[in-house]
Design goal:
The structure holds three protein chains of three kinds. By secondary structure, chain A is mainly alpha-helical. Chain A is built from 23 helices and no strands. The termini of chain A are far apart. By secondary structure, chain B is α+β, with helices and mostly antiparallel strands. Chain B has two domains: about 100 residues, no CATH class; about 60 residues, Alpha-Beta Plaits. Helices cover about 25% and strands about 30% of the residues of chain B. Chain B has five helices and 14 strands. In chain B, the strands form five sheets. In chain B, strands 8-7-5-4-11 form a five-stranded antiparallel beta sheet, with helices on one face. A three-stranded antiparallel beta sheet of chain B has the order 2-3-6, covered by helices on one side. In chain B, strands 1-14 form a two-stranded antiparallel ribbon. Chain B is elongated, with a radius of gyration of 23 Å. The termini of chain B are far apart. Chain C has a single domain, classed as Fumarate Reductase Iron-sulfur Protein, Chain B, domain 2, CATH 1.10.1060. Chain C is built from seven helices and five strands; from the N terminus they run H-H-E-E-H-E-E-H-E-H-H-H. Helix content of chain C is about 45%, strand content about 15%. In chain C, a hairpin with a 2-residue loop joins strand 3 and strand 4. Chain C is an alpha+beta fold. The chains are: A mainly alpha, B alpha+beta, C alpha+beta. Chains in contact: A-B, A-C, B-C. At the A-C interface, helix 2, helix 3, helix 4, helix 9 and helix 15 of A face helix 1 and helix 2 of C.
Chain lengths: ~475, ~210, ~160
């Protein structure tokens, strides 16, 4: 094994695990500085061993798309907030909650919107929808007197948004797997979308029954009646946002999403007469800087052979332990969740060749050639969703910050949820194969069934009866929308 | 009216746009307006050995690479992109095909790449495909044109003429190779097709005649 | 947080933001600022018969560095030619990925043997690119990827390298 790569991997693991476990106190070195320092130490170690350093190799590990999408999303969220778009969205959801369909329908709709209109980066949806999810969560918590509900709704939305870059047809991580694996464009979308609904409900259930992430009771004391009225531009802004993103998903125009978001921001600014200062309200620097520092350390790891050493270790385990290739293939599928990066693309790009190789070995051993695509789709979904539980500036950090929770507390339920949901996508591909067609009867039936079951579970999780029509109809509606978009 | 800020802003934008247009004028490419011509097929000799097929070319290739093709019993086009070394293309046992395509009449469609990253989804040994085609009197050979992988000539033509009326038709010849065929009456003589063609399959009609004459 | 730590951490954050600015600056210096727009979706990868990952050219543009290694998994050439182009180029030897130097000097593979490449420098890949334009066509936002390739084919590096 390459000594520099081994040292690089060890330093990286220490920085990540140390930050999560508290060995590196956040009040001394926040995650950004810890990762930056790790990158510097890796570089110094590499230079000490006589390795040549090329700054360009660092840079290639940085995927700019999620960074710029996040910035554009945050700016638009600022505009939406100032224009009253969140108040309008909350008002609309409150109206839905007052109908016989109630809260389960509203929550089912809200947490699954990111996957229905899947964007290439989940942060685009999280930035504007998180305040709405918080408002609904607190509203429900007050109604049901349950401090777990805000976390359930918020992290349900977050894990859904995090994973939604997997099935996105407009440049998501799924397309990365389709491109590198040369599978038909769009064929990875449906199984992932359906599995994400399962992941979402699983995370909500884990928060309620296992991890019990409760919010500060102070937040629950604010009476909801004191909420300000919806400004006249609020509805316009929010409906414009949802409509434009829905049209973007359907039409797939050759315009970058970031540009679309900037144009939307300008329109909202003109209509609601906003200033540039209003836009700044949406900007959150912590997730941005943590994500960039994650990319920097991943660049150092890649430049000094850390990923290559990781693969060698996996190969050694496959050959010399009872785990074999089957066991290591499973480890590989969940590797993005074990080492969650701020963007799933980091590990996906580095490890897709390995996923294809292990998939081929599995296919040879079992005699089932479809296992290669099964393995790849499970790996892609796990990679796409991994930015949710990532402590390195993942989407979960945004939720933790907003709910004023302890750092890294949402990682475990999200990781476990992904663990439970990824096999759903794998099983679907295994039994039904891949389909790039616009409408597939098989996937529609599975989507409708699974999403309705998830709707029933949502009923129970929110404290309603299992057969409440809100969850059932919400699940069914989501099931159909998943296949249509 | 010109004192109003919006008008001033619009005027500024207009001036900038005009300036950009003038600056870009130099970088707009110009094309030699002429009729295109399909380059004559490659002349070659095939020599079969135990573990390799050697295809010796009469002339070199502009790109330094050619597609070696063979048809199977289902009229499927099996292709492999190979480099030309010392005036010959050598296909060895264990050289797996890069892609397959369906041929219906003189049309070629549904290209499937067989390689995923560094491994093959389906291994079709090109040596076996070539010898099989020869033994079963099926079509095989080499071709210069990269269609349907490359469609630069067609795309260039579409930028000038509406889709339904383009003068280039990609055709599968009776010998099995794919070649562009032109309908001169429809051709606007823009010269884009042979300027963009990376393989030398399409050439400027007047230049080639001149060269050939020499 | 103590004052010293505040200063250290602030410097860290400024460096991180500076890194982002450096990428944007690099993209402008290379002459391809639009490279910042790439979705990194690899749809272009699926359409390249040479197994090239055209996104590697985009990465090299925003890194303003034509020596960045990128996937090029289906280029056949003799080992000697690969070695002459770049001894550090990686290629496939069975299930292993080795450099051209290792193949020639350590493994004893004959120089006239035909190899299939795995990763190569963007500048070298550009010279081998067939210029078929399949990457441009497959890009969901229609980025002119091949213009970077043609630039590297002609100039071997970016403007300000």
């Amino acid at each position: 094994m390459d000594p520099v790569g081994t040292i690089a991997l060890a330093i990286f693991l220490f920085a990540v695990v140390g930050s999560i476990r508290g060995w590196i106190p956040q009040r001394v070195l926040p995650i950004q500085t810890a990762l930056l320092l790790a990158a510097v130490i890796i570089t110094v170690a590499g230079l000490a061993f006589g390795e040549k350093i090329r700054f360009g190799e660092f840079v290639t590990a940085t995927s700019l798309h999620p960074i710029t999408a996040t910035i554009a999303g945050f700016i638009f969220a600022g505009a939406l907030k100032s224009a009253g778009g969140f108040d309008a969205a909350t008002d609309m959801l409150k109206k839905i909650m007052r109908t016989p369909l109630g809260a389960p329908f509203a929550v089912m709709l809200l947490v699954n919107i990111p996957t229905v209109f899947a964007m290439p980066c989940g942060r685009i949806w999280v930035a504007p929808l998180l305040p709405v999810a918080m408002m609904i969560g607190y509203e429900l918590a007050r109604e049901k007197n349950d401090r777990l509900l805000p976390s359930m709704v918020v992290f349900g939305l977050i894990v859904n948004a995090a994973a939604s870059c997997g099935p996105s047809l407009i440049g998501g991580i799924g397309t990365l797997g389709e491109g590198m694996g040369r599978y038909p464009a769009g064929s990875f979308s449906n199984p992932q979308s359906i599995a994400i609904v399962v992941i979402t409900v699983a995370v909500m259930a884990l928060i309620k029954y296992v991890f019990k992430i409760a919010v500060d009771p102070v937040g629950l004391q604010t009476p909801s009646d004191n909420a300000p009225g919806v400004p006249e531009h609020g509805y316009f802004s929010f409906i414009l946002f949802v409509a434009v993103l829905a049209v973007t998903v359907v039409v797939n125009p050759p315009i970058p999403l970031q540009t679309i978001l900037v144009i939307l921001t300008v329109i909202v600014m003109i209509v609601a007469r906003l200033s540039f200062n209003d836009l700044m309200q949406g900007i959150m620097l912590h997730p941005l800087t943590a994500m960039i520092s994650g990319f920097i350390v991943a660049g150092a790891l890649s430049a000094f052979g850390g990923f290559a050493v990781l693969l060698q270790i996996l190969e050694y385990i496959a050959r010399n332990t009872p785990l074999g290739y089957m066991g290591v293939a499973l480890i590989l599928i969940y590797l993005p969740v074990i080492f969650p990066m701020p963007c799933g693309r980091i590990l996906a790009v580095s490890l897709i060749p390995a996923a294809l190789m292990y998939g081929e070995r599995l296919a040879e051993v079992t005699g089932h050639p479809e296992l290669q695509s099964v393995m790849l789709i499970a790996f892609i979904l796990s990679g796409a969703a991994s930015c949710g539980p990532s402590p390195l500036g993942g989407i979960g950090c945004i939720g933790e910050g907003n709910l004023q929770l302890r750092g890294f507390v949402s990682g475990k339920p999200q990781a476990l949820g992904i663990l439970l949901g990824a096999p759903v996508a794998a099983l679907m591909v295994s039994f039904m194969g891949l389909s790039a067609s616009l409408f597939s009867f098989g996937f529609t039936a599975v989507s409708l069934t699974l999403c309705t079951i998830c709707g029933i579970l949502t009923n129970v999780l929110l404290g309603y009866r299992a057969y409440h029509p809100g969850g059932i109809l919400g699940g069914a509606a989501i099931g159909i929308l998943m296949v249509i978009f | 009216m010109f004192k109003q800020p919006v008008t001033k802003l619009l005027l500024c934008i207009l001036i900038v746009l005009l300036g950009a247009l003038v600056a870009l004028q130099k970088s707009f490419p110009t094309f030699p307006g002429d009729y295109p011509r399909t380059a004559p097929p490659i002349e070659y000799n095939c020599a079969y050995f135990d573990e390799r097929v050697e295809i010796r070319l009469a002339k070199g290739s502009k790109l330094g690479r050619l597609i070696v093709f063979a048809y199977d019993g289902n009229n499927k086009f099996i292709g492999l992109l190979k480099p030309v070394e010392n005036g010959a293309v050598v296909v060895r046992r264990g050289d797996y095909a890069d892609f397959t395509a369906c041929v219906e009449g003189s049309e070629i469609r549904d290209v499937i790449f067989l390689k995923k990253m560094d491994r093959y989804d389906k291994k079709i040994d090109m040596f076996d495909a070539l010898t099989g085609a020869r033994n079963n009197n099926l079509r095989y050979g080499v071709q210069r044109c990269l269609y349907p992988i490359c469609t630069r000539c067609v795309e260039a033509c579409k930028s000038v003429i509406s889709n339904s009326d383009i003068p280039i038709v990609m055709t599968v010849k009776p010998e099995g190779e794919v070649l562009p065929v032109f309908s001169k009456g429809k051709c606007p003589r823009c010269g884009k097709c042979f300027t963009f063609c990376p393989t030398g399959s399409i050439v400027n009609s007047s230049e080639t005649q001149h060269t050939e004459g020499q | 947080m103590k004052r010293k730590l505040v200063i250290i951490n602030t410097i860290g954050i400024v460096l991180i933001v500076g890194y982002l600015a450096y990428l944007a600056f690099g993209a402008f210096r290379s002459g391809y600022p639009w490279s910042l727009v790439c979705y990194n979706c690899k749809q272009c990868n699926a359409s390249c018969i040479l197994g090239m990952d055209p996104q590697g050219f985009i990465e090299s543009a925003y890194a303003n560095d034509a020596d960045i290694y990128m996937y090029a998994t289906n280029i056949r050439m003799t080992l000697q030619k690969a070695y002459d182009i770049d001894p550090g180029m990686t290629l496939k030897a069975g299930n292993d990925t080795i450099t051209a130097r290792e193949a020639l000097e350590s493994r004893g593979i004959p120089p006239e043997a035909e190899i299939i490449t795995y990763r190569m420098r963007a500048r070298d890949a550009a010279k081998i690119c067939l210029d078929c334009g399949a990457c441009d066509k497959s890009c969901p936002i229609k980025l002119p990827v091949s213009s970077i390739i043609r630039h590297l084919k002609q100039h071997d590096s970016f403007g300000s390298e």
